[in-house]
Amino acid sequence: MTDRLSHDFDSEAFAAAYHYDGDDLGATPVGDRTTFKVWAPTASRVVLNLFAEGYGGDAYRRVDMTLAERGVWTHTEPCGSGTYYTYSVTTAIGTHEAVDPYARSAGLNGRRGMVIDLVSTDPEGFRGPSAVRPLQSYTEAIIWEVHIRDFSGKLASSKYRGKYLAFTEGGLVNEHGESVGLDYLKQLGVTHVHLLPLFDYASVDEAYADTFNWGYDPLNYNVPEGSYATDPYRGEVRVRECKQMIAALHEAGIGVIMDMVYNHTYRADSSFHKLVPYYYYRYTADGKNTSASGCGNDTASERYMFGKFMADSAAYWVREYRLDGLRFDLMGLHDLAAMQRVEAAVHAVNPHAILYGEGWVMGATVDGSKQANQYEIHEIRPTGNAVGGIAVFNDVIRDGLKGSVFHREGRGYINGAPWDNLGRVIFGLGGGSGEGFGWRVERGEVINYMSAHDNLTLWDKLSFSCAGAEEWRRVKMNKLGAAILMLAKGTPFFQAGEELLRTKDGDENSYRSTDEVNNLDWSTLQSGTPAYETMCYYRGLIRMRRALPVLTDPHADVDCAVAQNGVTAVWIAGRGERVLALLNPHAEPLTYVLSEPYLLVADGTRAGDTPLAEESGPVTVDGHSVRIYKSKI
Ligand code: CA
After folding, report:
1. Is 48 within 8 Å of 21 (Cβ atoms)?
2. Do 450 and 398 meet the contact criterion of CB atoms below 8 Å apart?
3. Which position among 140, 241, 329, 499 bears the catalytic label?
4. DSSP string of 506-518?
């Protein structure tokens, strides 16, 4: 340790003197006065700077704050909603201007926090009953992952392209007369939309929004991103419009999940660092920031006040914005105790919220046994009457179905390598509860997917891995994979547009590629095209899953075997129902003899919530295809 790191932040003495549990950090307006509180125990001076605007001009007032209990600096000022503010903090690294990490809104590009009367930003009826059905288990959710700008950047009929408000526009159609935008989502039938980061991130200039970014570069965690607002200068606009987006989705019966990125910040010299230097990040023995995230500055969730910040922030979003779930980026970088605090804080607000994260094993910046990764996540328990703990993404079924994300040409069960990947698919069908992969989860708390924003789109992956295959064959492979995901125990998840054969022209990491590459192409939604047929099939599978309680039973029994003629047979039983699925990953049709009459609910081209036919005896499972049956036990 170098001297500058030797504040002994991890000592009992520091904890006893400075750990703060209050729920009043930030700027709290009451009447015509606002109380500011910020935690900076190693600072020798903190000055509150007040501004009339969120951008430009000088502070109209600078006032010394008072050091109160446990390292919290405080000041009450006769000012109210609409006041912008920063802190000038003097510590061992000098005097620096910081934005309050607890700021609820901000001016342009997040350079000043804003005092805001949050109640005034609620859309009408926002606090009333929600049309979103509360989850009774995570397995009931069906998640569509989208970036706010991707959703409407190419939505020609939208008045709010690239903005929060594009999610509020009903009645939009594309050039082929097909419903697009919000109406499309309603018809598709997904239960939840998962939005890529919508907290304030740094890399897009909010004044121009002339570059694209996914947003994994956090600036102000508790502030909505300004480039998605119609006015990024006035802090109340981003808050109100973000809530309007959520309200519109809720009115459509669709839950909203937000991607949180607590594992790193945009820069190492963030406001956190300016307030309490060297407290919030992890360092190597020679004093450099660790970078297990690859982003240059891993945060230190194990530090009490950052764990508190994560829990406070997560609960704040769920309470204030009525979010229905959160996704945690590179969760394996966080320690289990911090994630348990997050779980408890969120579920105290909404016990039905779905929580999940990337449980990859991440470097050794935290002791492996304490990492919130897929091997250890079972340690997290649901608290109170919470519907679940924290689920993890299932990379086993992801790569098992379509091949490794690390090799473009790699194949999986659906695209030409079924025998090499059968075990992975069976593990996925069983909800991550089987043996052989070193990790397992309870209650189907696993996110099953083939594509997300990272890596190739599914269609691009099929194009690279099956370069010689005809388009119709790749479409069948795609549908087969979708059918397996909708059968698997856990939560089905897909990247927006996977159901429309979305392509990014082979771009594997489009985090700062053009809008042209990233935006959803709604023009592909045209009756009679392969994209349209694929979407219809996804829609039918979603209806099938929602109509068969056995498929969302977190305790369902799942058995798989290679049966007659090489058909993969899957038996799923629970809640008084039974499903038999016959999977054929091969090009040639296969015959299977049903031992009793069954009701056909899906085949390779059709799926839905009503049986298609009753069948018994020998049936033919088409190549790259399924037949899914139900019967009463
Ligand atoms: Ca921003």
Report:
1. no
2. yes
3. 329
4. T-S--TTS-HHHH
How far does the centroid of ligand 1 lie from the alpha carbon of residue 110, in Å? 6
**E strand or H helix that includes residue 249:** helix 235-251
CA dihedral 273, 279, 283, 285 (to 10 degrees): 130
Rg for the chain, CA atoms, rounded: 25
Token pair recorded at residue 482: 């979708």
Active-site pick, 335, 358, 498, 499:
358
Ion ligand 1 — residues with CB under 5 Å? 110, 200, 225-226
pLDDT category of residue 366 using cuts at 50, 70 and 90: confident
Q: Output the CA 575–ligand 1 centroid distance in Å.
A: 47
Distance from C-alpha of 89 to C-alpha of 384, rounded to nearest angstrom:
40
- Residue 594 β-bridge partners: 617
206 counts as catalytic: no
**Please, what is the angle between helix 395-402 and helix 458-465, to 10°?**
40
Task: Residue count of the chain, please give it.
Answer: 633
How do residues 468-483 score in pLDDT, each as one tens digit? 999 999 999 999 999 9
pLDDT tens-digit readout, 284-305: 999 999 999 999 999 999 999 9
Rounded mean pLDDT, 39-46: 98
Q: CB of 113 within 8 A of CB of 97?
A: no
Give the chain's mean pLDDT.
Answer: 96
| Distance (Å, whole) CA 449 – CA 491 | 8
Q: How far is the CA of 98 from the centre of ligand 1 (A)?
A: 15
C-alpha to C-alpha distance for 510 and 119, rounded to whole angstroms: 37
* Confidence (pLDDT) at 369: 79
Dihedral angle over CA of 512, 189, 142, 628, nearest 10: -120
3-state SS class at 390: coil
Report the C-alpha gap between 465 and 426 in whole angstroms: 22
Are 99 and 271 in contact by the 8 Å Cβ rule? The answer is: yes
Catalytic residue check, 145: no
CB within 8 Å of 261: residues ≥ 6 apart: 197, 199, 215, 216, 218, 329, 330
Give the pLDDT confidence of 407-417 residue by residue, as tens digits. Answer: 999 999 999 99
Count the neighbouring beta carbons within 10 Å of the beta carbon of residue 616: 12
Distance CA 246, CA 167 (A): 8
* Cα 212 to ligand 1 centre (Å): 12
Output the CA 338–ligand 1 centroid distance in Å: 26
Cα 111 to ligand 1 centre (Å): 9
What pLDDT is attached to residue 2? 40
Output the CA 203–ligand 1 centroid distance in Å: 7
Distance (angstroms) between ligand 1 centre and the Cα of 113 equals 12
What are the start-end ranges of the E strands in 451-602?
A: 491-495, 557-562, 568-574, 577-584, 590-602
pTM above 0.85, yes or no: yes
pLDDT value, residue 203: 96
- What's the pLDDT tens digit per position in 448-504? 999 999 999 999 999 999 999 999 999 999 999 999 999 999 999 999 999 999 999
